[in-house]
Amino acid sequence: MALYRAHVLICHGTGCASGGSPKVLETFREELQKKNLDKEVLVIATGCHGMCEFGPIVVVYPEGTFYSQVKPEDVAEIVEEHLYKGRIVNRLLYKEPISAQKVCHYKEIPFYGKQHRIVLSNCGYINPDNIDEYISRDGYQALGKCITEMSPAAVIEEMKKSGLRGRGGGGFSTGLKWSFCAASPGNKKYVICNADEGDPGAFMDRSILEGDPHAVLEGMMIGAYAMGADEGYIYCRAEYPLAIKRLQTAIHQATEYGLLGANVLGTDFSFDLHIKEGAGAFVCGEETALMASIEGQRGMPRPRPPFPAVKGLWGKPTNINNVETWANVPRIMLQGAECFAAMGTEKSKGTKVFALTGKVKNTGLVEVPMGITIREIVYEIGGGIIGDKKFKAVQIGGPSGGCLVEEHLDLPVDYESLTAAGAIMGSGGLVVLDESNCMVDAAKFFLEFTQRESCGKCVPCREGTKKMLDILTRITEGNGKPEDLDTLQYLGEQIKATSLCALGGTAPNPVLTTLKYFRHEYEAHINEKRCPAGACQSLLRYTIDPEKCIGCTKCARNCPVSCISGKVKEPHVIDQEKCIKCGACMANCPVGAISKK
Amino acid sequence: MTEKKIRSLDDLRKLKEKTGDLTSARSEDDKVKIILGMGTCGIAAGAREIMNAVLKELETRKLHNVAVETTGCIGMCQNEPLLDVIRPGEPRITYCLVTPADVTRIISEHVVNGRIVQDKLFGRAD
Q1: A91: how many CB neighbours lie within 10 A of its CB?
Q2: How many CB atoms lie within 10 A of CB B83?
Q3: Which architecture does CATH list for A351-434?
Q4: Using CB atoms, which residue from A84, A130, A140 is nearest to B38?
Q5: Is the pTM of this model over 0.95?
Q6: Domain B29-125 belongs to what topology?
Q7: Transmembrane region positions (chain B) (predicted)?
């Protein structure tokens, strides 16, 4: 094995790859060859580093220098200056948004300082397409320990002790779930990995699959051993082509090593793993719909019980966990349940990965210990609100979750606290909204999504979400009626109580929480026909300040519907009846006399 | 194709030992650092040959837990090639006018055994 003095890690997560990182990697190879450094500097494509906002990201070891937004034309300079001459290229270093200082080292970046990367410890650190790198970082040692030294019951006991709870949203104890499936009679059982991550703005699972696929495989194998399963499926949406490619490579390499297949590590344990590509319907993230989809049926949920642990895939006992849950398993088994349970709060142990998006300066993937406050996530890791605007809310848990407001900033992030506040942990989407976001509009956005994704099997979800969406649309267009708010509340509660599955059961959450915390915004839309955040297009009013207007006629000439009148060098007026609120007048006014409210 | 199957936990552990070097350059554990002056002056004085000698020596001795870094000119161009060794918890030792032949001695004496090679010593920076 050749010795490389330096390693150049180039992020090939979906974010950085779309920013051009494959070209950056290619240029690195060319430039290193030109300088005859290709035998001493290793170039590796890794998974996501989490700081997607600043991609493509390049990290150079052994120094741990963190370069952000690297373009192919910057590569020659990094090779010549840093790798050849040992001088760090200052202009490409990441600039920290709070202090506006350049930060040189990976570990000095505040974005990472507050994080606790356990599940993501290999993400952005190893080459996901090389099983040897995973093995060099203790990969498959946990599996080895479990199947050679522990009984299935002992594995489940250890999982129970760790306190790990399902990371897909439900938050059910993983050890307990495994024990149900283990206790089910039958000689054929399945384990399934739910990689049908469908929430808008969520990409935790995708990043884990892309950055550390073997961790998911190993977790599933340990689970299969504990529950007596010999076959597994990874249900991954086809919209994640890179994740699927990395999984295929991982499965191929693990099979070559005999880690998948018959008699793993010379034991009686055998396990086969398949990938099932889903067509991307949100409802297929629901476990019974997911299993129907694997079986080739239309993806629709069915009532439970019977639970999958009793009657699951092809009618056999089945256990389903999501990607992040499985990825936690090898670490727990290797380091012991106590080590894992030492992190987090009393009832929520370990860490949680969040996809931090919206109006924060550092968007990306963050892994934090349970119990951290929203404030720390938004202001310290996220770097605060873009343009230093005022924080308004975070939507946590995606379209199934709810919003949390300023008074919740110091709320600890754990399953119970979030549920008590009307939101849910969910799978980990965290969308930050600022004062320019309209909460009615935000609720409408999420409801539009769930309404469109409703499978139509049960009436409350199919018809109810449609009615709710109609009302919300009416309100944002200025046609709301005072009684609409009570109707929304009533419908929301009914849909929650009577829907067949969790899709409908959680769909009203964004509306119900915004109604609770931002009722005044709804009322302003209905009673005053006004959108306080200035976001709802139909309720906007463009007006010309007669004091400021110089009568240059530019606005009138650019108005597509000719609704602005006035004489040259005299103040102009907008006809509100005809105005289509396109904003062309405001964009063209040279003196800023036009405002929108 | 060579037989790749891992047949036991022991095999897996051996493979882990073998593959440890793959990611060792990225680990942030305390390790010995060798730093080479790679300014124009260093390169002109033959620092590239020193680099090759260092990498070759580390490879021969299977010393895969040593970080090799480069640095720019520190202003003592007439003493290049300069080579620094930092052992964890010890001061930074600078050697000057290093030749490829010296590299073997510096690595065996200082990097491995912690004994400073006095005749090539330039100074120590605390």
Answers
A1: 9
A2: 28
A3: Roll (3.10)
A4: A84
A5: no
A6: Glutaredoxin (3.40.30)
A7: none
